[in-house]
Design goal:
The complex is a heterodimer. By secondary structure, chain A is of the alpha+beta class. Chain A contains eight helices and seven strands, in the order ββαβββββααααααα. In chain A, the strands form two sheets. Chain A has a five-stranded mixed sheet. Chain A has a two-stranded antiparallel ribbon with strand order 6-7. In chain A, α3 packs antiparallel against α5, α5 packs antiparallel against α6 and α6 packs across α8. The longest helix of chain A has 15 residues. Chain B is α+β, with helices and mostly antiparallel strands. Chain B is about 35% helix and about 15% strand. In chain B, strands 5-2-1-9-17 form a five-stranded parallel sheet. In chain B, β1, α3 and β2 form a beta-alpha-beta unit. The radius of gyration of chain B is 24 Å and the shape is globular. Classes of the chains: A alpha+beta, B alpha+beta.
């Protein structure tokens, strides 16, 4: 950890001019970084320099910059969301790096996440997995009083652990098979723990797992890289639950 | 339709029938319904997919309407509602501490410093309980007690515990609930999502809102979309200040383009400066991060009694600390409303007692809470917020107090709407933070989530149907209509004008300059002089923007600088309107603090005789002064009092 105002970083950034371009790593240097900057602020500073030089800025997705919207991505030195555990790229700060470091920045890579431009990828496949069953079919206006359905605190808390997924896709980027099992498993686990999710439990497990395959995500082969990079520390037990739910449903779909 | 004939006041169309608490029920009995078989003949355009937009889109789709939903982001799940931390209010009275619908209504009216519309606020309080029930049914994992029943906590501006929460991620969980229901409707073919699309123009035909022009942010193509009504659910305009707790892409462009088309902009000067944010660390700062107000339940706010005290906080003894909120406001203490807490932080920093490197911060200390409750309890309650603070600042708040400072967080102003949530342009409805309606001059904590979901789940399904049934729309208007070509040409010309400048300054640089002017002159404390100075500086900066902006890259592909430039161009006009509104409103109320109008104790002094009204501005052109209309606010059910939290 460093604490300094004038840090230099050598950046190797993936530049790709649209889907059909092959893309390449390009070298840049930022020599006026500070340890208080966030990683995305470092890219902001670089982009201001590029614009001043009449060069194209690096495109990357970002929005809330407080680790909750899941827009930011980036594989930093080979690790999705970079070196700090349980931290999305937007909350990673330059004090995690040393002055003079060379940092490689690439997009989240997966067949199911086609690159749009530079570091921006298309993650709409996640929406389609949720469309396959990541919900409780309740219509507005039809709900009973919230307290008619007591839920043991422990189960509600565990459901919340799974529900905290921000849908960033780091799990996919980190997986050697580019599997979306942690993402899909987290939603299935949340809803299987809660009584509200029970009526549609079987159909949900089958549809979501099948959709994940149809979207070109790979299978899980227990590397657990997903858990290691997840900014919300969602545990791989989600995947075990997903498998159990799927097998139970497949054996007895009614 | 919107003007009272006998008075020079806008007509809010509040139903006349019944007492305040009966109005909404009686109104629902009387309004028209659309035949279920006919609903599918109507297409509704929903712009924005945060809490208000997603809940509206879902409810209307479930009822049978065709819904087209637009978001500038890649997925509705990322809308900025997701970042709301603390909670959502409802008058359930589960803790048996004396809460009622009336109290929630009254606290909201009082919190807003008597500058909101009674009937709207009462309706909000009435439907608050339905929201909790619905979200529980969706599988939102609210915090529970060991009994398995729902837990509550308290928030600023209230003496009861009525806030429901899901750790420090309540907005995320409510949004994902609405998003999952939205995805269900997409799968059912009832909603079509247009992601990475930005609304650039409203299309009006015969005075009615009938469509939008959107730009596909990946291809740069302009698209025309036709519907029977347009719902604007696009959030607030806090990013006028450049640094705010809003997400980087949050903007006012859709609302501002509607304003240019004739929609009135109400109370633009009402902005909320949130007291508990992480202070600025340098020029590179791109946004500010909020620490939930819930922290004020257990954290104690203080500064050193002595000016310029450079000791470490743990070395400052108890009798040399000034717990200024507790001393000044003994009954509410650290839980005073946001505007009061923010103003007092500014006050002590102005006195030279601020802490940290910049002197622009106060302490929020958990030492006593940790001693009283134990570190594990504090961790369970606020763990994720403490972790976030540590990630950003590199300091451990379990060992040393947090440093906090106010930051722009929410905008109470927005497009003017009547009781039906319809703007003065027929067919254009405005929901959530984008409208002005429920929070007056100051919003209470945990009320934004409540309002967004109330508007979308429980208000618009009724009021939109009434409009559609009355207007009998469903004609065969298509996008070849001349109104669409004209609107598209305007949107194209606007972008081309930006691209043609080819100057020297980047859009971020110009945006930062605008933010500095706004914070300095239209910020927490305003005076007639500061506002006049602000207006002239904004005008000069706007002129520079249109002469010296540089947009890199190609407009025909993903180009975030071009998107940002359009938004900042609109902020350059909106910022001036905010300053004008603040200048005209020659009183202090809620978040609008005119330094000329304060009591001996430094509290906001309203002028009810002159300003008990909504100011709704009509656009006349970028360089032409706008016209100020008013809607008189009448209070038949509450007595206007001076807010006191002592």
């Amino acid at each position: 950890m460093s604490d300094s105002k004038n840090m230099t970083f050598h950046l190797k950034i993936w530049r790709q001019n649209g889907r059909s371009d092959t893309g390449q790593l390009v070298n840049y240097t930022v020599d006026d970084a500070s340890s208080d900057m966030s990683f995305l602020e470092l890219l902001d500073v670089l982009n201001e320099k590029l614009i001043a030089r009449n060069e194209l800025p690096v495109e990357f997705d970002h929005d809330c910059r407080e680790g909750i919207c899941g827009s930011c991505s980036l594989v930093i030195n080979g690790v999705a969301h970079g070196p700090r555990k349980a931290t999305a790229t937007c909350q990673l700060h330059m004090r995690e790096f040393d002055d003079g470091d060379t940092i490689t920045i690439e997009p989240f890579r997966a067949k199911a996440f086609p690159i749009i431009r530079d570091l921006v990828v298309d993650r709409s496949s996640f929406d389609r997995i949720i469309q396959a069953g990541g919900y409780v079919s309740v219509k507005t206006g039809s709900a009973p009083d919230g307290n008619t359905l007591p839920i043991p605190k422990k189960e509600a808390d565990t459901a919340m652990d799974y529900a905290s997924c921000i849908g960033c896709g780091a799990c996919v980027a980190a997986c050697p098979n580019a599997s979306a099992s942690l993402f899909t498993g987290a939603k299935i686990s949340q809803l299987s723990l809660l009584p509200q999710g029970h009526p549609e439990r079987k159909q949900r497990a089958i549809s979501m797992v099948e959709k994940m395959e149809a979207e070109n995500f790979g299978d899980c082969s227990n590397h657990a890289e997903c858990q290691a990079v997840c900014p919300k520390e969602i545990p791989v037990e989600a995947i075990a639950t997903m498998r159990r739910e799927y097998i139970k449903a497949a054996m007895d779909p009614t | 339709m919107f003007m009272n004939k006998d008075k020079n006041s806008l007509n809010a169309n509040v139903p006349e029938k019944g007492e305040l608490h009966e109005k909404w029920s009686l109104y629902k009995n009387d309004i028209k319904l659309v035949n279920p078989a006919n609903k599918r003949k109507h297409t509704i355009i929903v712009v924005g997919t945060g809490l208000a937009g997603a809940s509206a889109a879902v409810s209307l789709a479930e009822m049978g309407y065709n819904v087209k939903a637009f978001t500038i982001l890649d997925s509705p799940r990322r809308s900025h509602s997701i970042a709301a931390q603390g909670g959502i209010n409802a008058a359930k009275n589960y803790p048996n501490d004396g809460d009622t619908v009336w109290r929630l209504f009254y606290d909201t009216i009082k919190g807003g410093d008597f500058r909101s519309r009674e009937a709207n606020v009462h309706r909000l309080a009435e439907v608050s309980n339905n929201i909790i029930d619905h979200c529980v049914a969706q599988g939102v994992p609210f915090q529970r007690e060991y009994s398995g029943l729902l837990d509550n906590r308290s928030f600023g501006g209230a003496q009861v515990s009525r806030t429901f929460y899901a750790r420090g991620q309540t907005g995320q969980q409510l949004l994902l609930g609405a998003y999952s229901s939205l995805m269900r409707q997409v799968a059912a073919g009832r909603v079509e999502i247009f992601s990475r699309r930005e609304m650039l123009e409203l299309v009006t035909v015969e005075g009615k809102a009938r469509g939008i022009i959107a730009r596909n942010l990946l291809t740069g193509q302009f698209e025309r979309h036709v519907g029977d009504s347009v719902l604007l659910c696009t959030g607030g305009y806090g990013n006028v200040y450049h640094l705010s707790t809003n997400a980087k892409n949050s903007n006012a462009t859709a609302a501002w383009r509607c304003h240019r088309r004739g929609a009135y902009f109400a109370n633009p000067c009402y902005t909320q400066i949130h007291p508990t944010c992480i202070p600025v660390s340098g020029d590179h700062q791109s946004k500010l991060t909020l620490m939930s107000e819930s922290l004020r339940n257990d954290g104690r706010v203080w500064v050193p009694k002595q000016k310029g005290d450079a000791r470490k906080p743990i070395d400052i003894p108890e009798d040399e600390r000034d717990y200024y909120l507790e001393t000044k406001y003994p009954s509410f203490g650290n839980l005073v409303p946001r505007d009061v807490a923010s103003r007092n932080a500014k006050l002590v920093c102005d006195e030279g007692r601020g802490v940290g490197e910049t002197g622009l911060a106060v302490y929020l200390d958990f030492r006593d809470a940790i001693n009283r409750l134990g570190i594990d309890t504090v961790k369970a309650k606020y763990g994720n917020l403490f972790d976030m603070y540590e990630r950003i600042t590199g300091e451990n708040p379990y060992e040393t107090p947090m440093r906090i400072y106010p930051a722009v967080h929410y905008t109470m102003g927005g497009l003017w709407v009547d009781y039906n949530l319809m703007s003065n342009l027929p067919g254009l409805f405005v929901l959530g933070e984008a409208n002005f309606s429920d929070h007056g001059a100051n919003r209470l904590g945990a009320s934004a989530l409540m309002q967004g979901l109330a508007d979308g789940y429980f208000v618009i399904p009724y009021t939109l149907g009434h409009y559609i049934a009355n207007e009998g729309i469903g004609d065969s208007l298509d996008t070849e209509h001349v109104a669409f070509s004209e609107a598209e040409a305007m949107a194209r010309a606007f972008n081309q004008r930006l691209l043609d400048i080819k100057g020297d300054r980047s859009v971020s640089d110009l945006h930062r300059s605008l933010g500095n002017i706004m914070w300095e002159h239209v910020g927490m404390g305003r005076t007639a002089d500061s506002l006049k100075e602000g207006i002239s500086q904004i005008q000069a900066l706007r002129a520079e923007f249109w002469q010296n902006l540089r947009i890199p890259g190609d407009p025909g592909e993903l180009n975030k600088n071009l998107e940002h430039a359009g938004r900042v161009a609109d902020f350059m006009e909106l910022g001036e309107l905010m300053a004008r509104d603040a200048l005209e409103r020659d009183e202090s109320c809620g978040g609008h603090f005119r330094e000329e109008h304060q009591s001996a104790e430094g509290e906001a002094t309203r002028n009810d005789k002159k300003f008990s009204h909504v100011a709704a501005w009509e656009y006349k052109g970028a360089e032409i002064p706008p016209i100020r209309h008013i809607e008189d606010l009448t209070f038949d059910n509450v007595t206007l009092s001076t807010r006191s939290y002592k």
